Amino acid sequence: MSMILSASVVRVRDGLPLSASTDYEQSMGVQQCRKYFKTLLKKLAQLPDRCMLKAGQYNINFISSLGVSYMMLCTENYPSVLAFCFLDELQKEFITTYNMMRTNTAIRPYCFIEFDNFIQRTKQRYNNPRSLSTKINLADMQTEIKLRPPYQISMSELGSTNGFAHLSAAEFKGTGKISAAPHQRLEAITLPGIVSFILSLLCGALNLIRGFHAIESLLQNEGEDFSYVIAFFLGTAACLYQCYLFLYCTGWRNVKSFLAFGLICLCNMYLYELRNLWQLFFHVTVGAFSALQIRLRQPQGKSPDYNV
């Protein structure tokens, strides 16, 4: 018998479950699919917005939009068009009921558990084809799936937590081949982080301008010290490198940010004759603030096991 077994709503960035239907089926196949669910939760941000995983007698389908993913488990013979119509209906209702601020700031698992009532009612409708014949129009979804079919995730692409090869990132949204895994993702950018990034760019620009002025002065006056030019450009490079470290995850990231901050301090110590006290204080403080924000913005850790 073809039917939907369970469905859940999860946050894409960390796999936090927001709501889920009760799963009454406890067969070995369903238990294995739950393990696949947990693996997929850790990779949602790297996958296309519409995917399908065929797991023996069952299929896992999901769609993602606005930072939220809608996932379902159904039998292998359940029509794909109905499956994605079901997910699309969940998505529309969830977006209407809850705003993005609430989903982005949610901390506890299943904090929108009341949405389970809608999931259960919708699941019952989709498990009874007679009740669907006059309530939904499949033509639009059939056309959309034909034009942009869901990406087929193979078993060999699942993460190593289940003993398989690593699941890598999609090159683009929608269908397409899977490429090598990207750099590890960092935590979400905070407002202080944005401020530090802008200030670092500002300090880098100021150093760059002063460096060109120093070159101009050097060309006009042969007695000028060329080392000031080097100091300004090194300060520029250190500020821009701090911006890079803030945006991207690299090896020894915290050590590199500390070394960049140290270089900023050394450059400003050397340039103390060309800058007043407030200018020195501004550049050093911005460098320290940026190093702190780099330290605070850590790579995303392993998704917690929420028993989904």
TrEMBL record:
Q: What stretch or stretches form a coiled coil here?
A: none
What SUPFAM superfamilies has UniProt attached to this entry?
SNARE-like
User: What's the domain of life for this entry?
Assistant: Eukaryota
Q: Which UniProt keywords apply?
A: Endoplasmic reticulum, ER-Golgi transport, Membrane, Protein transport, Transmembrane, Transmembrane helix, Transport
All copies of the Longin domain together span: 8-119
Q: In the UniProt record, does the keyword Coiled coil occur?
A: no
Annotated compartments: Endoplasmic reticulum membrane
Report the membrane topology from the UniProt record.
Multi-pass membrane protein
* Keyword Transport on entry: yes
**One GO CC term of this entry?**
endoplasmic reticulum membrane
One example of a Gene Ontology biological process annotation: protein transport
**What InterPro entries would the database entry show?**
Longin-like_dom_sf, Longin_dom, SEC22a-c_C, Sec22a/c
Pfam family of the protein (one): Longin
What PROSITE patterns does this protein's entry cite?
A: LONGIN
Q: Where are the transmembrane segments?
A: 188-209, 229-248, 255-272
What the protein does? May be involved in vesicle transport between the ER and the Golgi complex.
Name the UniProt record assigns to this protein:
SEC22 homolog A, vesicle trafficking protein
Source species: Gopherus evgoodei
